[in-house]
Write a structure and sequence with these properties.
- The protein is an alpha/beta fold.
- The chain has two domains: 303 residues, Zn peptidases (Aminopeptidase, 3-Layer(aba) Sandwich), CATH 3.40.630; 136 residues, Aminopeptidase i, Domain 2.
- The protein is 29% helix and 23% strand.
- The chain contains twelve helices and 22 strands.
- The protein has a nine-stranded mixed β-sheet, with helices on both faces.
- Strand 5 and strand 6 form a beta hairpin.
- Helix 3 packs parallel to helix 7 and helix 7 packs across helix 12.
- The protein starts with a helix and ends with a helix.
- The mean pLDDT is 96.
- It binds manganese (II) ion (2 copies).
- The site of one manganese (II) ion (MN) has 3 residues, from loops.
- One manganese (II) ion binds next to loops.
Length: 469
């Protein structure tokens, strides 16, 4: 007779993180998430994330790559690309030709960018025109407090940083929405059309210049305030990069505080856990690399996105300083033998929208890091699709190190889909698999993640770095 236990052992079953970790590990999980929430508050743009990552890296003994003459096992270095993209490495003891282990995440998030000529006055109000960045549901950005982050130049060519709406006492900004009483027409429109891209204008002022009669007095007053505060003029906007993001801070969600609610968790939850794990790597056999890229939300284009040559160049430079030279044959061998966890968030099954998910292949909040063999849309279009061999290697490392994980795809076939940086990494001729923290309300101004999954993402990346594949 077959026993019930032996039959049970034949099944694939997922585990709930909370009931499978000790009280001590739960404490560690909560501490990690407290630090994560601070990280989110400090880095709401890709530039701010790079700055925060550098500060953290320095505290863990990392130095700029350029400061090193040669490299040896145990050395910790970082490369910065155009202030928006960073790569950190801990040099391994093995021959680098055997490959390196990379965790790659992105640090840009959906948001509203200011247009290059944004400021105008209408009906006694000053507003800023925006152009949204990444996939947003536009209605979610109305009637919430917003802040402005970014850089621009003064007439004298000095770069100034602007960050308004974050500190206690700072003003915030907002996009007003139509009152329900007058919304009969708006409410009958499709959700995708009810708020138009051209109506995402930010309210920034309503008071004219004091004791001075001038046309467009409210707009002129704003320009005057900006000039006094930052030394900028209207044409400073033309070359500026100013991003509008939710102004609220990361919060615990739930009576049991089991979730983190915050803007920008896609994909800073993976960026943070990747950073934390590379800081905790000790004398790895293979060189450990943490790569944080920009522009994923608009297709990984641009010189700071995954498609830029930055990663190739940084690896070439690294091998060059490690082995006293690097030709293309050597570089290609390094890449061919390397492994990458493309860490980007997945969708957590949402009880309010169960119909969008196929439960047997969905990720659940609180059941560990989600491993996705493939992403994409339709017939896996835009996916990298990891090989059976590499999936097996990764899952074995997870199991060996007690990482709680779950296998998933994004949602029901033909419901939609999405891509990650995985396919661009794969194009280099490297093994890569998608994995990451499941998220509720992805791409909204207030995304939600489960603390157990954040903790397991950290554990997963650390296991991957320490346990060479
Ligand atoms: Mn993402
Ligand atoms: Mn995204």
């Amino acid at each position: 007779m077959v026993s019930k236990e032996s039959l049970e052992a034949l099944k694939y079953s997922t585990k709930d993180v909370y009931s499978h970790i000790s009280a001590e590990k739960r404490r560690e999980m909560l501490d990690l998430c407290d630090e994560y929430m601070e990280f989110l508050d400090r880095g709401k743009t890709e530039r701010e994330c790079v700055n925060t990552a550098v500060e953290m890296a320095k505290n863990h003994g990392f130095v700029p790559f350029s400061e090193k003459g040669t490299l040896k096992a145990g050395d910790k270095v970082y490369f910065i690309n155009r202030k928006k993209n960073i790569m950190l490495a801990v040099i391994g003891s093995e021959d680098v030709e055997k490959g390196i282990n990379i965790v790659g995440a992105h640090i840009d998030s959906p948001r509203l960018d200011l247009k290059q000529n944004p400021l105008y006055e209408s009906n006694g109000q000053a507003l800023l025109k925006t152009h949204y960045y990444g996939g947003i549901k536009k209605y979610q950005w109305t009637a919430i407090p917003l802040s402005i982050h970014g850089v621009c130049y003064t007439k004298d060519g000095e770069q100034v940083e602007i960050c308004v709406g974050e500190k206690e006492g700072d003003p915030v900004f907002c996009i007003t929405d139509l009152l329900p009483h007058l919304s009969r027409e708006q409410m009958s429109k499709k959700l995708s059309e009810a708020i138009e891209g051209e109506s995402l204008n930010i309210l920034v002022g309503g008071m004219g210049v004091n004791d001075c009669e001038i046309d467009q007095s409210v707009k002129m007053n704003i320009l005057n305030i900006l000039n006094i505060s930052y030394g900028i003029t209207e044409d400073s906007f033309l070359s500026a990069e100013l991003e509008i993001v939710p102004s609220f801070k990361a919060k615990n969600v739930g009576f049991d505080m089991s979730f983190v609610g915050a803007y920008g968790q896609d994909d800073r939850v993976c960026a943070f856990t990747a950073l934390k794990s590379i800081f905790d790597v000790e004398s790895p056999a293979k060189t450990a690399v943490c790569l944080l890229v920009d522009k994923e939300e608009i297709g990984s284009e641009g010189n700071t996105g995954m498609m830029s040559k930055f990663f190739d160049m940084a690896v070439l430079e690294l091998v060059n300083k490690l082995d006293g030279g690097c030709d293309m044959i050597k570089y290609n061998r390094v890449i061919r033998n390397s492994a990458c966890m493309s860490s980007d968030v997945s969708a957590a099954l949402d009880p309010n929208y169960e119909g969008a998910f196929e439960k047997q292949n969905s990720a659940f909040a609180g059941k560990g890091i989600a491993i996705m063999k493939y992403t994409g849309a339709g017939g896996k279009s835009g996916s990298s699709d990891a090989s059976s061999e590499f999936m097996h290697d990764i899952l074995s490392v997870m199991d060996k190190n007690g990482v709680i994980w779950q296998s998933c795809e994004l949602g029901k076939v033909d419901k939609g889909g999405g891509g990650t940086i995985a396919k661009y990494v794969a194009n280099l001729n490297m093994n890569v698999v998608d994995c990451g923290v499941p998220v509720l309300s992805m791409h909204s101004p207030f995304e939600v993640t489960a603390k157990g999954d954040i903790y397991m993402a950290y554990k997963a990346y650390l296991a991957f770095y320490n346990d060479s594949i």
